[in-house]
Write a structure and sequence with these properties.
By secondary structure, this protein is of the alpha/beta class. Helices cover 49% and strands 13% of the residues. The structure holds 5-phosphoarabinonic acid.
Length: 418
C-alpha cells in the first residue's frame, strides 16, 4: 500500500509534514510498544493474540459445521460487532459459503420483519455477537431469532444452531451454559470497532466462504511493517500527521472516496472507527464518505465549489477485478467515443479526472491498493486501526473509549423503563 499526496495549493509543505512526523515520534513509539493505560483495549495490536492458529482452526471447524447444515447464517451485532465482517462479506463472498443475513443492527419493525421473511424456507444458524450483552439492538434481535429457531426445529436442534460471541463471565456466557449454545470469546481486551481479527469478525466471514487465513496474513504483514518503520517513513504516522495538520489548518471533515462500490461497507467500518475513536473533548475530524462516480452527481458540486470544510482521502484499487467492453450496437446514441473501451479504463479515467479537479480546490490523499482481496482487507483493517491510534495520540484524545455512546444508551434505557 502506498500513499500519494496531491496538495496543489501547498497547504502542508513537505518540511511541515516532516517536522510534524518528527514531533510525533514519541506517539508512534508508544503505539508500537502498546501502552499500559490502554491495556484493556490493545489486544488487536498483535494480530497473533486473537487470530492465531488455535483460533483459526476452531473458527474453520464451526464454519464447516454451519456450511454443512445451513443455507443462511444470521450475524446479530451492531457497530463494531458487525461492520468488519460485513465489509468483507459484502465485497468478496462468492457463493462458496452460506448466505449471510444481518440482524441486531436496527430497531425497525419493518427491517426486522423483512429479515425474518428472508429466512423463510431456509435452514439457518445464528451468531449473537455482543461485548457486554446490554446493547438493545442485538439483545432484542436475538430474542426474535431464538423464537424463529424454536418454531422450526426441536429444542436440541435449535440449541445446536445458536452461537454466541461474548465475554467470559457475561450474562451471554451464562445464557449459553444454561441452554447448551456454542460460546466463543469476544476479546475482553479489545473494543468492538477494533475486533476484525478475532472471533467477532472472522467467524461470520468464514461462514461466508472468505479465506480468513489470507486476511490474517494481510493484517500480520501490515503489523510487521508499521511496527518496523520509524518516524521518518512510517505510513500510518504520515497519514495521521497529515490529517492532524489539515485539521489544524481549519478542515473539519475528512471524506473517504473511491470508485469501487465493493468498498461500500468498508466505508461504514472506517466511519465508525474514526468517528467513535476521535470525536471527543470537542475535537476530531468528522468522517464522511463518497462512492463515485455516483456521488459526483450529488455532492460533487459541494466538494468543488462549496465551503472549504473537507480534505479528501481516496482509496485507489488498481486491479478492477473484471473486464467489460462497451461494444457499438449500430444505433445512433452519440456514445461512439466509447466504442471498444473497457469500463475498467473508463472508471480509471473518471478517477484521474476527479483527482485533478478536486486537488485544485482541496488536498487529496490517495492510498494505492493493488487488488481488493482478503489479504488487502486484512492490511486495510490493521492500517487504519493503527493510524487511528496514532492520530488519536497526536490529537490528545483516548481513541479506545466511547463516553458519548454510553450517554445516549443511558437515556434510551430510561425511556424504555429498564
Ligand atoms: O466499537 C464499539 O465499542 C461499539 O461500536 C460497540 O461495538 C457497539 O456499541 C456494540 O457493542 P456490543 O458488542 O457491546 O453490543
Amino acid at each position: 500500500m502506498k500513499l500519494r499526496v496531491e496538495d496543489k495549493r501547498g497547504l502542508v509543505s513537505p518540511e511541515a509534514l516532516k517536522a510534524k512526523m518528527a514531533e510525533s515520534a514519541a506517539v508512534l513509539a508508544r503505539a508500537q510498544a502498546g501502552e499500559e493505560k490502554y491495556a484493556d483495549s490493545q489486544g488487536w495490536l498483535k494480530v497473533e493474540e486473537w487470530a492465531g492458529e488455535k483460533v483459526l482452526a476452531e473458527i474453520e471447524a464451526i464454519a464447516d459445521r454451519v456450511k454443512k447444515t445451513c443455507d443462511a447464517f444470521v450475524l446479530i451485532g451492531v457497530g463494531g460487532s458487525n461492520n468488519a465482517a460485513r465489509s468483507v462479506i459484502e465485497a468478496l463472498a462468492d457463493g462458496s459459503g452460506v448466505e449471510i443475513i444481518y440482524a441486531g443492527n436496527t430497531l425497525s419493525a419493518h427491517a426486522l420483519s423483512k429479515m425474518l421473511r428472508q429466512l423463510e424456507g431456509k435452514d439457518f444458524a445464528i451468531d449473537c455477537i455482543a461485548k457486554n450483552f446490554e446493547t438493545l439492538e442485538p439483545g432484542s434481535s436475538f430474542r426474535i431469532l431464538r423464537k424463529a429457531l424454536a418454531e422450526k426445529y426441536s429444542p436440541e436442534e435449535a440449541a445446536s444452531r445458536v452461537i454466541c460471541t461474548g465475554t467470559y463471565g457475561s450474562s451471554l456466557e451464562k445464557l449459553c451454559q444454561d441452554n447448551g449454545y456454542t460460546f466463543v470469546p469476544f476479546p475482553t481486551n479489545i473494543g468492538g470497532r477494533y475486533t476484525a481479527m478475532s472471533y467477532v469478525g472472522l467467524l461470520p466471514m468464514a461462514c461466508a466462504g472468505i479465506d480468513i487465513r489470507a486476511l490474517v496474513k494481510g493484517a500480520s504483514e501490515m503489523e510487521a511493517r508499521l511496527h518496523s518503520e520509524g518516524c521518518e517513513d512510517n505510513l500510518a504516522l504520515r497519514y495521521a500527521a497529515l490529517r492532524n495538520l489539515y485539521n489544524e489548518k481549519g478542515y473539519q471533515l475528512e471524506m473517504l472516496s473511491c470508485f469501487e462500490p465493493r468498498l461500500r461497507w468498508f466505508f461504514k467500518w472506517w466511519t465508525q472507527l474514526f468517528a467513535e475513536s476521535e470525536g471527543k473533548d470537542g475535537k476530531g475530524l468528522f468522517p464522511v464518505c463518497a462512492e463515485y462516480s455516483e456521488e459526483l452527481h450529488a455532492v460533487g458540486q459541494y466538494i468543488q465549489d462549496g465551503a472549504p470544510l473537507m480534505f479528501e482521502t481516496f482509496i485507489d484499487v488498481k486491479d478492477p477485478g473484471a473486464s467489460l467492453v462497451i461494444e457499438p450496437d449500430g444505433k445512433k446514441d452519440y456514445f461512439d467515443y466509447l466504442n471498444g473501451m473497457d469500463f475498467a479504463d473508463v472508471n480509471r479515467a473518471a478517477f484521474e479526472a476527479t483527482v485533478t479537479a478536486h486537488s485544485d480546490k482541496l488536498p487529496c490523499l490517495i492510498f494505492e491498493v493493488e487488488k481488493l482481496d482478503a489479504h488487502a482487507f486484512g492490511s486495510l483493517f490493521y492500517f487504519f486501526q493503527f493510524a487511528c491510534y496514532v492520530s488519536g495520540g497526536i490529537l490528545g484524545i483516548n481513541p479506545f473509549d466511547q463516553p458519548g455512546v454510553e450517554a445516549y444508551k443511558g437515556w434510551m434505557f430510561k425511556a424504555l423503563g429498564k
